[in-house]
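Hi W.,

Here's what went into the run:
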Amino acid sequence: MLQQVPVGIKRLEDYRPIVGDDGIAEIRALAEPLRGARVVHINATAYGGGVAEILQTLVPLMQDVDLAAEWQVIEGADEFFNVTKACHNGLQGMDIPFTDEMQTIWRRYNDLNARRFEGEYDFVIVHDPQPAGLLSFHGRAGGKYWIWRCHIDTSQPNPAYWEFFVPYISRYDAAIFTMREYVGPGVSFRHLAIIPPTIDPLSPKNAPMGMEEARQTVARFGVDVRRPLIVQVSRFDPWKDPLGVIDAYRMVKREIPEAQLALVGSMASDDPEGWTYLDRTIRHAGEDYDIFILHNFHGVGNREVNAFQTVADVVVQKSLREGFGLVVAEALWKGKPVVGGNVGGIPLQVIDGETGFLVNTVEECADRILYLLRHPEEVGRMGAAAREHVRRNFLTTRYLRDYLRLFRELAA
Ligand code: UDP
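Here's what came out:
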């Protein structure tokens, strides 16, 4: 059997004050005919990164509207996760080789996990490329509708990777992408849904935190809360460009010497490359003690991430590629304008000049950070717009609604 991930309890009712009566009523109406439907989400890791973050909320909310929803993770050793990390990078367009040996490893672990898949489900949702071969290796038995959910930007994939994956992903009954542009070349799906991800406003990471508690939490890591703080929360990954963030901070620091930078990143269990990139980031920061490089091994969990986002004077997400960027929505929801890379799903969230700034270079990034540090009144204005933008578009209830709609369409 695949490993089952335990989830907590969530109540749709608790979201009523945030999303309103109509939002809740619509979800209940959509869920009613699906009562008892057996749903399983399958992904690669129970911890770290955006997908795990989403499933922690989505699965219990599906349960609360009376679907029999579960979450399972595949198993793999480092050799597999090294290959899947390359797949992640290759599918997002990186120019790296995809050897026969790598392909064999990917197939072997997908076959192995497919043999472990058990049970009978109405909807099987397979997340991302790591387990994308489950349907091919397992066959349709055990699932009435098979859905592949792609969380990454495959608009300009490395052809070696894309051509390898197309036969596996095109077998699914439906595919979900974050943006229409992400569907790579030469593939058509029987059913295509465009659904951007969302955040949970009631999770420990996003629930309102008092400024005093947030300051105390951040101060525990050595940050001086009386001085300006720039924050980026991200895995240590070349696409998140932590080195570029350090460069932008250095330009800011020439003008505002008191500025501090916190790079906060969790080490996901499916991301062995993270440690290497963490090392590079630490080297790049050198002896500057105003740069704080922190991760979950320092005790940075959800509440701490919340505290950093709450305390930050400016939140940055200087990605070079970004499927969606949950961290952007998390910061906007806390009323922080975000200086974000003009890539992938970030422009859905950061409306330039309204909810933050979109930047293409290190210089632009430094320039907009400086602007926000010097215009706190603008931070207030944009922060309010940012929160409302997330409330309307990127809260978890909208995600639940879109999944229910898709289930209904498939079952019709
Ligand atoms: N995250 C976290 N702790 C960290 C760094 C990241 O909990 O130290 C969370 C972050 O808050 C967000 C998720 O991991 O919810 C990252 O999702 P995102 O879509 O931004 O990027 P991904 O890692 O999936 O590429």
